[in-house]
Structure prediction request, 425 residues.
Amino acid sequence: MANNTRDLKRRIRSVKNTAQLTGAMKMVSAAKLRRAQEQMMSSRPYAAALERVIGDVARRVSPELHPLLSGRELNTVDLVLIAGDKGLCGAFNANVIKAAEVARREHDAAGRRVEMTLIGKKAGEYYRRRPEILVREFFADAFREIDYTFAADLAGTLTDRFLAGETDGVFLVYNRFRTTISQIVTVTPIIPLQSLAGQANEEKDAVEYLYEPAAAELMRGLVPRFVSFQLYQAMLESVAAEHGARMAAMDNATRSAEDMISSLTLKMNRARQAAITTELIEVVSGAEAL
Amino acid sequence: MLPEKIHLEIVTPQRRVIDKDVDEVILPGAEGSFGVRPGHAALLAGLAPGVAVSRSAGQEEVMAISSGYVEVQPDRVVVLAETCEKSEEIDVDRARRRLQEIEGEVSKTAEADPDLMRFRMMKHLARLQASGHSR
Prediction:
């Protein structure tokens, strides 16, 4: 009996340590989340305004004005997958990888060649175990300091691939931040921008714009900026979502650890009480025997 | 009847600088400054480094814009600026210092791209101008 209480005590101590660890990780994630969320929220208005403006223009100009405005039949597609560099964040990585796999298999089934671009170590680890899947590029540690130049460079590469005919469309798969505890896995096409130009004919009666300088030149500046910024915004969203997911996961872990501690404590107290009772009975019956 | 106010929204990748109704706004277009009032024709324009002014109810706000784009519709103006600083936020000493540095570079290196140099100088000149300081 005494042995049992000692074992329980040891287990309680170890669970307490775990709770302390997960509690600390939760606090760290909360602090990081606040920063990431601020950064994400502050660039959202720009992203939204840019999308609105470019949509307004794309509806009015002819798709020939910029090569990224017109789509073609999809024979080769690029999937850009944004996951995290670290684990311990619930289903955050698993969900986004699963969504990317669903998209990849769909394209595969339709007979399209798929090339993957991976951002985040967890995505890299998953596809390293699957060498049959074509990974074009892999980036690790892109989230430590989220940098617009990184997004612009990658967007430039993808755009060049589209212009050179190496890919017919680029899709982005990432976790979109909704609330601290909920992320939405989003699959969205970023190249070409035909979804924006798609409604061209519906608004035929829209007022024609004045352009200063000429429309083609303006689009040359706006379109690449839009592609880069979408990528950039997706990375910001993903990071905020990751910290949120980790915070929630660690909160759950801390809570389960606390539950476990109280149930183990109860068990230990019972065992100790049982031991005392047995000892008392032994003493009493020993005395009676005299 | 033309609407009396026009909605002005100025956003940069870092923040939303202005989001309100104004009487008039003057912007540094790539091909010259222009003013926008309610009922303006739809327009898409590039912006050059320069000073932007918004007026509403006799109040004037002066800002320095580095570059960007503007979309004008009869009832709203959306400015997508790379950077936009209100006059009271501008660090005048820093702008002066940067300007001197660029001038130093220009005089030292012969092969510097004159357009790029002009662009960089204009950015800081606009900041000085917007903050109400001359050189």
Q: What stands out?
A: Chain B is about 25% helix and 45% strand. Chain B touches chain A through 21 residues (CB under 8 Å). Residues 29 and 107 of chain B are 29 Å apart (CA to CA).
